[in-house]
Amino acid sequence: MGDKQQFDYLVIGSGIAGLFFALKAAKNGKVAIITKKNQSESNTNYAQGGIAAVMDVHDTFEGHIMDTLIAGDGLCNEKAVEMMVKDAPECINELIGIGVDFTKENNGELALGREGGHHANRVVHAKDLTGREIERALIAAVKKEPNISIFENHLAIDLIMEKDEKTNEDKCFGAYVFDRKEEVEKAFLAKVVLLCAGGTGRIYLHTTNPDIATGDGIAMAYRAGAKLANLEFVQFHPTTLFHPDGHSFLISEALRGFGGVLKLKNGQEFMPCYHEMGSLAPRDIVARAIETELKITGDECVYLDVTHLDAEKVKEEFPTIYNQCLSLGIDITKQMIPVVPAAHYMCGGVVTDLNAQTTIQGLYACGETACTGVHGANRLASNSLLEALVFAKRAVLDSAKNLDAIKIPKDDIYDQPHGTRGNGLTVSYEKERLIIQKAMSGYVGISRNNAGLAKAMTIIEELIDKIETLYFYSPLDANLIELRNMATVAYLVISAAAARKESRGLHYNTDFPNKINYAPIK
Ligand code: SIN
């Protein structure tokens, strides 16, 4: 075991939720942010679209709430949605105060884009790289805050659970962490832990997510006994670039909000046959429609056509997408963009209340790791950065209430090594990762069926046995820690998918094509 360090707050993850939380929490105490690569490597950094918020006098909270509930297909917590929507404008203004440079109209007002499922223009954005601009501003602010320490290349292994001295309840007091550079395990102790370690996209072959999205937060919370929910609802983004060198590059839905239209190879529009909102229908509907069209036509991809739009405006609004496509030989102002769906966002996760508090005392969860109730069975576009902000803020307020009273137990358990230390060798475990990714993409993708889910489960259970043996007998290795988490999350997604005997939102099972009627969650 390496060193043992103590803080008031431990933040696991450095995306928008973690940085926003840390900035606010630093007013109350010492904060450690651990991040498994470098400080800006997070799903947030890759978010192109923006943040949904009612900022226009012609828009209404009711409209944003309704669009969120419709996308969520009956499983949203209405209270959580209402709270998030009403808190949104203040969060946007706070980000502006921190220095985020959102795109503006010529008159100086915020430019508001539109994305799938929204009936109004309400997406506040920074051209087509909103996440990167937010990360830039938040990191700059965090660096000025003396109460915050950032630990890069620190990968959380497991949560530290102990009995609370006063209540005798199981409580989270920090995390065991692997320092990838020093190859040593450390204990980070804290009164309050925020789990905001991002999503799970890497359990699929094709994903818009960066390499870090291996479901670490969800897997750790599961091992610690936290309640999880809605893991069957994996959102596939309908439009990622189809190109051998495209690496599932996201073609933002904002392009469709700007007037882009989905077409087949022969130029024929197909979305109006599936939904009255056409190319701007909610994501689950668009992704399934594309999958169906690809099956019918036998084509490898469909196309997003923006060639009818003002070329200069397209270049100005979407410089990243324009340049990325151009570098691969596609001039999007003249040629249709080949696109396919790819795994994008985990709507389920660690269950929280309206204050981001999980079912474990001392443990809060935010962002893609959490299941706060706002996304239900399908997340509305550009509600994710918003959810992260709103719940991070509430977590700080809630956890501040009795921060001073929390005592970290003096226990030598933190001195016991969790595993053996690294031996200087890094094993890729690429073959094992591929087994997970192929099983998930083959059997637990946009459409599922009972036989496929059973097959995926057999493959993953066999792999989990092998990984557990490797994990306990091999030197600690970041790739092995991630592989273990990926297998755990794959197991949880398959279990949740198999347990849902209906089709709803993002979960479509051809053996149970209908919806079961539930009372709305109030
Ligand atoms: C996009 O830009 O299409 C992605 C935005 C989101 O996932 O909310």
Tell me what you see in this structure.
- The protein is an alpha/beta fold.
- It folds into 3 domains: 4-232 and 356-405, FAD/NAD(P)-binding domain; 238-344, Alpha-Beta Complex (Flavocytochrome C3, Chain A, domain 1); 430-499, Up-down Bundle (Methane Monooxygenase Hydroxylase, Chain G, domain 1).
- Helix content is 34%, strand content 18%.
- It is built from 13 helices and 19 strands.
- Strands 1, 2, 6, 7, 8, 9 and 16 form a 7-stranded mixed beta sheet that branches. It has a 4-stranded antiparallel beta sheet with strand order 11-14-13-12, covered by helices on one side. Strands 3-5-4 form a 3-stranded antiparallel beta sheet.
- A hairpin with a 6-residue loop joins strand 7 and strand 8 (170-179).
- Helix 1 (16-25) runs parallel beside helix 4 and helix 1 (16-25) runs parallel beside helix 10.
- The longest helix has 24 residues, at 450-473.
- The termini are far apart.
- The model has no long low-confidence stretch (mean pLDDT 94).
- Succinic acid binds at residues 47-49, 252-254, 345, 381-382, 384.
